[in-house]
């Protein structure tokens, strides 16, 4: 299950959705059959991500639900629920469901505060909170959060890094520095 997940995830990260889907589906099925809850959680999460890229909101919600349900029903996979929860909060943010996004990110921030092993997760949450600050018009706080996360880029997953850079580009544009905004977007 884990090997199929890794192949599917690698294909998904390259934009090869048609190649990713059968690997991720089979990884999920095998993980369920063999009681590998953590692999089932992350496989379902990537299936949700794949369907989100395709614009299929119903399938995205279905797989996000399976990911979270599996994580909540298997105590040994509780740690694996963190990424689905982060992803779900980003989806709320993208859908302009700011209160739900903020509630999700703040809950995660509190859970992760004293967990030194989850640095990349904390940075993902920090980017989400920074983007919420940006959406709420608090440019200074948004900039502080986004710059803090980007100070350790090796801890950021690709989509989180791009989201942080995009947020800083929007801040530059809102401040009238279109050149800086374009340069940041070109770099990203």
Please, could you describe this protein's structure?
This protein has helices spanning 2-13, 17-33, 37-54, 57-73, 82-94, 98-112, 119-135, 139-150, 158-174, 178-187. Helix content is 79%, strand content 0%. It contains ten helices and no strands. α3 runs antiparallel to α4 (57-73). The chain is mostly helical and 188 residues long.
Gist of the model:
The chain has helices spanning 2-13, 17-33, 37-54, 57-73, 82-94, 98-112, 119-135, 139-150, 158-174, 178-187. It is an all-alpha fold and 188 residues long. Helix 2 packs antiparallel against helix 3 (37-54).
Tell me the number of strands.
Answer: 0
| Helix count from the secondary structure assignment | 10
Instruction: Show unreliable segments.
Output: none
| Rg | 17 Å
Give the oligomer, counting copies of the same chain as homo and different chains as hetero.
Answer: single chain
**SSE ordering:** HHHHHHHHHH
Mean pLDDT: 92
Short descriptors:
about 190 residues
Q: What order do the helices and strands come in, and which of them pair?
A:
Blueprint (H helix, E strand, L loop, with lengths): L1 H12 L3 H17 L3 H18 L2 H17 L8 H13 L3 H15 L6 H17 L3 H12 L7 H17 L3 H10 L1
């Amino acid at each position: 299950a884990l090997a199929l997940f890794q192949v599917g995830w690698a294909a998904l990260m390259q934009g090869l959705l048609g190649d990713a889907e059968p690997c991720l589906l089979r990884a999920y099925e095998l993980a369920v059959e063999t009681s590998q809850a953590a692999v089932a959680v992350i496989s379902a999460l990537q299936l949700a991500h794949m369907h989100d890229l395709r614009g299929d909101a119903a399938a995205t919600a279905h797989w996000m639900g399976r990911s979270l349900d599996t994580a909540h029903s298997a105590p040994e996979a509780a740690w694996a629920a963190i990424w689905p929860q982060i992803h779900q909060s980003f989806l709320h943010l993208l859908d302009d469901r700011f209160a739900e996004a903020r509630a999700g990110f703040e809950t995660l921030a509190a859970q992760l505060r004293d967990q030194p092993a989850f640095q990349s997760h904390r940075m993902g949450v920090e980017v989400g909170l920074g983007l919420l600050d940006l959406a709420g018009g608090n440019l200074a706080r948004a900039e502080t959060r986004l710059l803090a996360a980007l100070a350790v880029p090796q801890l950021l997953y690709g989509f989180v890094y791009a989201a942080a850079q995009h947020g800083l580009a929007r801040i530059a544009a809102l401040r009238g520095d279109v050149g800086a905004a374009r340069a940041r977007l070109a770099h990203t």
